Amino acid sequence: MFILDDYISIDESSFTGETKPSMKMIDSISFGSRQTSISDRRNIVFMGTYVLNGNAKGIVICTGEN
């Protein structure tokens, strides 16, 4: 979960292959979130991606090889 002033723009091309920046914002994920595609997880930023614009603070929710 991120605590944001408004939103942040993320380059996820190395992770998803998508060339268009992804907008991340405060948002909740429904209980069935395990079925939510990675590109639809608007409140999570993944390792290996880059912040293009904006400010945020976050917490690590998972680490490891998988």
Automatic annotation (TrEMBL):
Residue stretches making up the P-type ATPase A domain: 3-65
Protein name, as recorded: P-type ATPase A domain-containing protein
Pfam families, per the entry: E1-E2_ATPase
Highest taxon, organism lineage: Eukaryota
